[in-house]
Structures are given as structure tokens and as C-alpha cells.
Specification:
By secondary structure, the protein is α+β, with helices and mostly antiparallel strands. Strands 1-2-3-4 form a four-stranded mixed beta sheet. The N terminus and C terminus are likely disordered.
């Protein structure tokens, strides 16, 4: 069994080779909404709902650097633990410093996300919070690398003649449209 594991782990797939070349800078997007550590969790919940997102970047109020991330899962855990979202600060439930940089490879980002069970990661630089990368961005990049696509992975569903800034603009528009879709409630 150990020999099989060694042989399999020594083989490189084309997915890993292409994905290793791509970086977070290729797929990140600007953070739309942020909170500070001393905001109430109820305020963060309100912002998530109205921004149509499932995560907010938590930034230091003075420096603008990311200090964490708060997700709907963090809020759900707080409620399940009996906490009142009107009485709890964001810093009490956020995940601390899970950021990557623009030079982090897609493969390394995927490893961080799967190992630590993250769906979103802030992208940080010397000037502070630069953007956000989520599991969908990473999966699209990995799929594009597997298919050998030189296009921006976020634009894989757009017509091939759409490239560059137009591609990014349309990808953001499409992502925003999808984030506002509400599930249909079915009667039991």
C-alpha cells in the first residue's frame, strides 16, 4: 500500500502544473463590503443580507489591513451557542488573519481552503486589503488549467470573443446576479 501511495503522489497531473502557474491576482475581485472588529454581529448580518454575500472582510479601522473574516457560518455558530447577535462584537466570532497575497498560487490557495475549511479568503498586500478570492474562483481556475485555457478563469462561461476588462466586468455582473437569487421555498 505504501508503494502505491508513493507512486501516485510522485505523478504530476496537468491540473496542478497549470494551476500552480496561476496566482490569486488572476482571479481575485475587489472586496465589496467590510466591517471593523467592534461592529455588532447583527450589523454584519444586515450588511451580508443587503450586499448579497456570505462573507465580509474585517479590517483594522486605522490601518485598513485585514484582521479577519466573518462568514454566515460564524454567525450561525454564534447563534447555535446561544449568543445574541445584538450583544456580540464581530471580533468575538470572526476567523483571525486567514489572508493570502496576490502572489499565492491557485494550488496553494486551494490547499489552504480545503485544509482549513474556508470558502473565502481576503487578499492582502503592503497597502492593506486588496481583494477577495472565494472557492468558486479557485475551482474555476483549476478547471481552466485542466482544460489548458489561457483565458481568465472567471470568464470561462462568457463568449470567447469577450476578453480583458470586458470579461472581468461581465464576470462581476454575472456573479452579482447569481448572488441575489433566492431559493424557492417548497411546501412540505
Amino acid at each position: 500500500m505504501e508503494q502505491i501511495m508513493t507512486v501516485v503522489s510522485a505523478q504530476k497531473s496537468p491540473v496542478h502544473a497549470g494551476a500552480a502557474a496561476a496566482t490569486v491576482a488572476d482571479v481575485m475581485r475587489a472586496p465589496l463590503t467590510t466591517v471593523i472588529p467592534h461592529d455588532h454581529v447583527a450589523a454584519a448580518t444586515y450588511l451580508m443580507r443587503h450586499a448579497g454575500t456570505t462573507a465580509l472582510m474585517v479590517v483594522d479601522a486605522q490601518a485598513g489591513h485585514p484582521v479577519g473574516i466573518i462568514t454566515e457560518a460564524d454567525i450561525a455558530h454564534a447563534i447555535a451557542d446561544g449568543k445574541d447577535v445584538n450583544d456580540v462584537w464581530v471580533d468575538a466570532v470572526m476567523t483571525i488573519r486567514p489572508a493570502v497575497t496576490t502572489t499565492t498560487t491557485i494550488r496553494d490557495t486551494a490547499t489552504i481552503m480545503t485544509t482549513r475549511h474556508f470558502r473565502h479568503l481576503p487578499v492582502a498586500g503592503d497597502t492593506g486589503l486588496l481583494g477577495l478570492v472565494d472557492i468558486t474562483d479557485v475551482c474555476r481556475a483549476l478547471l481552466a488549467a485542466e482544460q489548458g485555457s489561457p483565458r481568465n478563469p472567471r470568464c470561462s462561461k462568457l463568449p470567447t470573443e469577450v476578453t480583458g476588462p470586458d470579461c472581468d466586468k461581465l464576470a462581476r455582473r454575472d456573479a452579482a446576479a447569481v448572488s441575489h437569487v433566492q431559493p424557492v421555498k417548497q411546501d412540505a
